[in-house]
Design goal:
Order of helices and strands: EHHHHEEEEEEHHEEEEHHEEEEH
Largest sheet: 8 strands, mixed
Distance between the termini: 53 Å
Radius of gyration: 19 Å
Shape: globular
Structural class: alpha+beta
CATH superfamily of the largest domain: Penicillin V Acylase, Chain A
Number of strands: 15
Number of domains: 2
Strand content: 15-25%
Strand order of the largest sheet: 1-4-5-6-7-8-9-10
Helix content: 25-40%
Number of helices: 9
CATH architecture of the largest domain: 4-Layer Sandwich
């Protein structure tokens, strides 16, 4: 199977109104159209909107202007976005972070159906009233992972829900809030712990100071997992680890390879007590025996992108496709715009 390149590397900046309008106009020019939504999508999205207004009201401004620029109904666009992850299966992914004594190494594989590769984008996001970041997603407006200018990294993994979905915030918008509004693991964990979620997901968090955690979120409760004592690393795949969260996960629908991937990553980090570098991170993310680099040809699912970053001075490398084949290439966009801003601020 050939590797591919992420189709777009868009840059969005300004107020949330401006970011929505500019990017919506670009996509509309390239043929993007918003379809009318089914009644159940509209009804569930309308209920979710109340929680989004409480949790992250600015993002609704961006969605409104995105819809206007696409000559579309706000309800059709917004309620579609607010339904993402609630009424269909979520991605199967692997994430880890490790403090090697001098820097924090963050690694992430995003695994999903190959049919979604045409929607994959890598965003440089520069909000006027927020932190700048590089983020990745197959869902416009939302993000599924990223690293911001403060050296905070985050990524989600899906968990099979045991209980019915509830109106609330979904993972693309929760991840976007972490990148835009949070500077540390403490801030991000607090924000996520105060949210009401539509369903079950993990949010791995790591910052440049070596703090790390996994926020395990569900419709009814949220718990924060820290690294085990003496272990300067943490990992998550597609299941919960906190004992109080196990009742929220459907054991029968858990991804068959979630535990093997977690065990493979955990053992690799444990063996070196977290003292890994970029080359070691690449080796972990390219592992086949533990299914970390995913190639499920029977259902046409696999790793769509892979990220490695160091967080002291955010340095980001991305493989667009399977990390066992695609080269990790540096993404310097965030550092370039930060340096430009610094020069402009000098007297």
């Amino acid at each position: 199977m050939k590797t591919w390149c992420i189709l777009f590397h868009p840059r969005v900046r300004g107020t949330y109104y401006e970011m929505g309008h500019r990017y919506g106009a670009i996509l509309y020019k390239h043929g993007f159209r918003v379809k009318g939504q089914r009644t159940e999508i509209l009804e569930f999205g309308r209920k979710c909107e109340r929680e989004v207004k409480r949790f992250f009201p600015e993002i609704l401004q961006e969605i409104q202007e995105f819809a206007d620029a696409c000559h579309a109904s706000y309800e059709d666009l917004a309620y579609f976005i607010l339904n993402v992850g609630a009424l269909e299966n979520e991605p199967m992914c692997s994430v880890f972070a490790a403090y090697n004594g001098s820097d924090v190494v963050f690694g992430r594989n995003y695994d999903f159906y190959y049919s979604f590769k045409k929607f994959v984008e890598s965003y440089l996001t520069c909000p006027k009233d927020g932190y700048w970041s590089i983020g990745h997603s197959d869902i416009f407006v939302g993000r599924e992972d990223g690293i911001n200018e403060k050296g905070l990294a985050t990524a989600i993994t899906g968990v099979a829900p045991k209980k019915p979905v509830k109106p609330g915030i979904n993972f693309p918008l929760a991840t976007r809030l972490v990148l835009d509004k949070c500077a540390t693991v403490k801030e991000a964990a607090k924000a996520l712990s105060n949210a009401h979620f539509t369903r079950t997901d993990n949010y791995l968090l790591a910052d440049r100071e070596g703090n790390m955690a996994v926020v395990e979120a569900s419709q009814e409760k949220v718990r924060v997992c820290k690294p085990q004592e003496g272990e300067p690393f943490i990992a998550c795949t597609d299941h919960f680890l906190h004992p109080e969260m196990l009742e929220m996960e459907s054991q029968n629908e858990r991804c068959w390879d979630s535990m093997p991937r977690y065990t493979t990553i955990y053992n690799a980090l444990k063996q070196q007590n977290g003292k890994i570098d970029i080359k070691t991170a690449q080796k972990i993310l390219s592992n086949h025996s533990g299914y970390v680099c995913s190639h499920q040809r029977n259902i046409k699912l696999g790793t769509l992108w892979s990220i490695i970053a160091t967080l002291k001075k955010p340095q980001i490398l991305r493989a667009e496709g399977h990390p066992c084949r695609a080269k990790y290439k540096p993404d310097n966009r965030l550092n370039k715009v930060i340096r430009k801003r610094q020069r402009q601020l000098k007297p």
